[in-house]
Amino acid sequence: MTFVIAEKTIESLGIEEIAQFKGRIEHLQKEFYQHFSKGTGEIMIFRAPGRVNLIGEHTDYNGLPVLPMAINRDILIACRPRPDEVVDLYSLQEIQKAQFSISKEIAPSATGNWDNYVRAAAQALQRYVAGSSPLRSSLLKGFEGIVDGNIPPGSGLSSSSAMVVAVAVALADINQLKIEKKELADLCAKGERYVGTQGGGMDQAISVMGKKGYALKIDFFPLRTEATPLSSDYAFVICNSTVVAEKSGAAQRAYNQRTVECRLGVLLYKKDIREEKKEFYQRLGDIPSQDYGHFLNDLIDQDKYTLEAISRRTKVSMETIKKEYLTFSNGSIFHDYGESYQIRKRCRHVITEGQRVEDSKRVLFNGDFQKFGQLMDESFRSCALDYEISCPSIDRLIQICKSAGALGSRITGAGFGGCIVNLLDKKRVAFFIESVSREYYQNYLKKSREFWQSQILLSSACSGAGRLA
Ligand code: GLA
């Protein structure tokens, strides 16, 4: 194969940072030799972090910004290149292993299986190779390896995207592909739709491009990032509600339904737009801000719509609506059970949330963390009331965290369970943890005194994915 070595496309971490992974790397290497022969060839170690989104929820796929940071929870892969196209990957968390051959079209395994994230990354990179002329007919070489992670799954901290990114980084490095970080993030985002969730690109972008000490304001279509400074006087404390929101099943349907509701909002907006201009409006983020009031109050003239009602109002046939608004990029069609779509509330959340991200960037540059806390609180209200992605346990946890001194508290990630993120004055962190562990984990969840230790995470902003060894 004639791959070009990509210098510096995948950034290595600084020496002092790598030192903190020493114990985990040694453990992975030991596991590696228990599963695979000694053989020859070096063992490479790759890492991809999870993330916490500080503000900007469900805005990414609508073409509006987000503001996440990469965290100190991650996926590590120890692997050795193979001479053929086989990927043979054991997970220290899962019983089944991921084992398949890279081909032009990689078949998914059963819905909900973890190895679909591994396949998604391989498929995305194989498609990239197929689109690049000198390499068109090549197949990627695979690897044998061990994967380990410490991001609690289903907690809204992007464990699955970190898996996709870790495998993609490993394959890109092993095959010496020249891919810019932004392109890799885009490939991973598109690739992950392979599993059926219509996610935006936030999780993959921050996992690839995270920057130590900074949150990133990320814009989409096209992907752009802006490092936003954080202050060491304040801490972000992440608390897991322990309500698991899997990326498949009911939470996936609820997520996809939100994406459909937003698309239908765009359709309602386009009703009075001249035919030749309609194509410009693809997402809510394309609507000019001076039209927001008219859009939310006049163009969306009902609280709830059925698809038939939207078809009547917009004079667009049901068939076209299904084809253009209910069909996802992997070809699957959102199944309409005749329910009503709450378009005004959803669009109001997305539009106001996009504005809150812009405001947040400004206040963070000014070091005004009190104001940032207020924006986080407003964001949570909008997520809970308009986007309806909270649940009773999260509501309770938020109340407890606010009473314990959080300057701002909000759900993070897709929602329907998972984690919340709190902004705290550093001096108040110990008191905060004490109160939350007592009120939520002991009294509300009836767990042991020590349970909180595995559920409350403190993380500063970390670097994005890379090769550790
Ligand atoms: C999931 C998706 C992201 C984003 C968030 C909600 O994490 O993967 O793209 O849409 O939900 O903000």
Structure write-up:
The chain has 469 residues and is an alpha+beta fold. Helix content is 39%, strand content 17%. The protein is built from 14 helices and twelve strands. It has helices at residues 15-19, 22-35, 115-130, 159-174, 181-192, 202-209, 250-270, 292-299, 307-314, 318-325, 343-365, 369-385, 392-403, 429-444; strands at residues 44-55, 67-81, 86-91, 98-101, 143-149, 214-219, 224-229, 234-240, 408-411, 419-425, 456-458, 466-467. Strand 6 and strand 7 (224-229) form a beta hairpin. The structure holds alpha-D-galactopyranose. Residues 53, 57-58, 60-61, 199-200, 202-203, 413-414 line the site of alpha-D-galactopyranose (GLA).
Keywords:
469 residues; alpha+beta; de novo design (two linked rop proteins); four-stranded antiparallel sheet; globular; disordered N terminus; binds alpha-D-galactopyranose
How do the helices and strands line up, and which of them pair or pack?
Layout (H helix, E strand, L loop, with lengths): L14 H5 L2 H14 L8 E12 L11 E15 L4 E6 L6 E4 L13 H16 L12 E7 L9 H16 L6 H12 L9 H8 L4 E6 L4 E6 L4 E7 L9 H21 L21 H8 L7 H8 L3 H8 L17 H23 L3 H17 L6 H12 L4 E4 L7 E7 L3 H16 L11 E3 L7 E2 L2
Parallel strand pairs: 3-5
Antiparallel strand pairs: 1-2, 1-12, 2-5, 3-4, 6-7, 8-10, 8-11, 9-10
Helix pairs in contact: 3-4, 3-5, 4-5, 4-6, 5-6, 7-11, 11-12, 13-14
The protein binds alpha-D-galactopyranose.
The site of alpha-D-galactopyranose has 11 residues, from α6.
Unreliable segments of 5+ consecutive residues = 1-9
Could you say which small molecules are bound to this protein?
alpha-D-galactopyranose
In order across it, which strands form the biggest sheet? 4-3-5-2-1-12
Major beta sheet summary: 6 strands, mixed
- Approximate shape: globular
Please report the total strand number as a whole number.
12
Mean pLDDT: 93
